[in-house]
Amino acid sequence: MIPALMASIALAIAGAATLVEPAGAETPLAADFPDRAVTFVVPGPVGGITDALCRIVADKLRQSFGHPVVVDNRPGAVGSIGASVVAAAQPTGHTLLCTPDAPIVLSPLVNQRLPYDPDGFEPVISLAITYSILAIRRDFPADSIAELIAYAKANPNRLNYGSGGNGSGSHVATLRFARAAGIEMVNIPYAGSAPSLRALLAGEVDLLIDSLSMLLPAYRGGLARILAVGAPARLAEMPEVPTLVEAGLADMEFVNWYGIFAPKRTPTAVVVRLNRAVNDTLVLPEVRAAIGAMALRSVGGTPQDLKESIAQDRRRRGQATGAIAPR
User: Fold this and answer.
1) How far apart, in whole angstroms, are the C-alpha atoms of residue 98 and residue 84?
2) How does DSSP assign 239-261, residue by residue?
């Protein structure tokens, strides 16, 4: 997944992504789109990282479309509620899913009875990526990954961790970490990343693996400690913190992505129009600065880039986590 994402980032920065149809060959359908308001369904709460990212893009699209771009927050069930709304929408491109990876890649790993088909969408574009980091409560008795693992092995099932719910990115990432480390921990699921972070800061849970964007303010404020980052190299935001690979755990890169999807059978011309508009938005200096301020990396690229990244992500995460019983 990483090479495909990095290639997409380079395309976005250059502003020269190659689309599935040549420039200047717009069909009448694409030329007329949109002819009314466009709705971004965000499967998370107001004020979250996904919400903020999608609003940045929506604000710029209003200007290029000449029509309102409305953000409709539908949180709950690890994104299943919002994803279901878009899966059932008319395939005209006027109702879109602006989402993190959980409803598309992660939830199917732990729930075989989803109320929507995770393949029932047309990929439009990858917006941004970030990496997950491993945080512990301030007073936890460990100063390194090695000490954390030793504590967990000496106290099986005494260590607990917060997650954004079963099937969330934090849940699956922590399962991968626990299996690689050979330890057992107790999952305490919450209704999203924000409540699980509050639980960590309050000392209700010992550990939390979540995105850099979510945990960075708490780390900088001295409210939580970071033991390692799930990135291919140390992060510029916290260069003093080692990677999980440096700590002795192979294949421990936790990439989280955000993207836009249309309902299945949305006309290709409309998907291309949307893709071009969002690519044009992502290369604007003010947009890149706003996204970077949230500790996200802008991506962009083609619908095919996102489709291929999803396929790679599913294989990688599925192989790493193994068969996880449905919750």
Assistant:
1) 13
2) TTSPBTTTTT-TT---EEEEEEE
Give the DSSP letter of residue 78: G
pLDDT of 327 reads 38
Its pTM stands at 0.82
Stretch 262-289: mean pLDDT: 97
**Element (DSSP H or E) covering residue 232:** none
- What is the CATH T-level fold of the domain 2-130+255-321, as seen in this structure? D-Maltodextrin-Binding Protein; domain 2 (3.40.190)
CATH topology of domain 131-229: D-Maltodextrin-Binding Protein; domain 2 (3.40.190)
**Is the predicted pLDDT of residue 152 greater than 70, yes or no?**
yes
Which residue, among 12, 99, 3, has the nearest Cα to 50 in the 3D structure?
A: 99
Report the DSSP pairing between strands 121-137 and 69-73: unpaired
C-alpha to C-alpha distance for 260 and 94, rounded to whole angstroms: 12
Q: Residue type for 144, please? A: S
Q: Which residues contact 204 (CB under 8 A, 6 or more apart)?
A: 162, 188
Calculate what percentage of the chain has a pLDDT beyond 70.
88
* DSSP string computed for 185-241: -EEEE-SSHHHHHHHHHTTS-SEEEEEHHHHHHHHHTTSEEEEEE-SSS--TT-TTS
